[in-house]
Structure prediction request, 271 residues.
Amino acid sequence: MNNIKRESNLSISSNYYHASLRKAISIFGSRFNDIQIMREVSSGTEHETVDVPLQYAPIQKFIARIEADASGGRASNIIYPRMSFEITNIQRDSIRKIQKTNRIDNNYFVPVPYNIDFQLNIGSKNAEDSIKIVEQILPLFNPNLAISAQLLDNNDEIFSTPLELNNVVMNDTYDGDFMTRRAIIWQLDFTLRYYFFGPIPDSAVIKFVKTNIYSDEEMTILDQEMTGQPGLTANSEPTTDINDTIAYTSINADDNYGFIFQVDETPEANN
Prediction:
């Protein structure tokens, strides 16, 4: 049942942790951790499958290692091609709004929409390998990749967290002769439309709501009375009919209930 709390009384000293940022990193990384490419072996008639490793690492460290290996200054057992990713920015999304029709079975403060920017880096020693990776990624974003995720533990609520591809840049360090090794690095910039959550308060589930609408500023003339409650028949079927429902106090948050809304246009006469 909808029981979302506002954050006006939230203290910065509140002790809670939802591992939200770790989940965001996992959501992003899981999109790219199973990429493979096919290579021709020396005969030209057979192929081998190469797994492309993925790690969370800063771009500076990633580029420095690739360029050092490409220079031939030391032996390396690093597998190429390879990918890394990192968070580059986190910013509150003031445009995105929370859907008011979402059914929520647990209490928690209103989720705050944030945009998390990621950069995916693809490092390779030849153009062919890097292109094979990029061509597996680009068609997925038209214009974004739809992702649905459970962002809170012990809560089945599913949130839409689309991933958008913003920019693609290819850098090639090759500028020497044919004997010079090269390092090719693709940088892909993404935005994950995400949510962060406040603490889960310890309070009862709201099952009945009544709203009074007055026609004067002094609130003496009652114009309308609106009520809302869950609806469930004795056979555990959802209903929107007030005459078919059991008492709302007997309906649990995890029941498959309907919603009953009533509007009384003459509340003064009925009171």
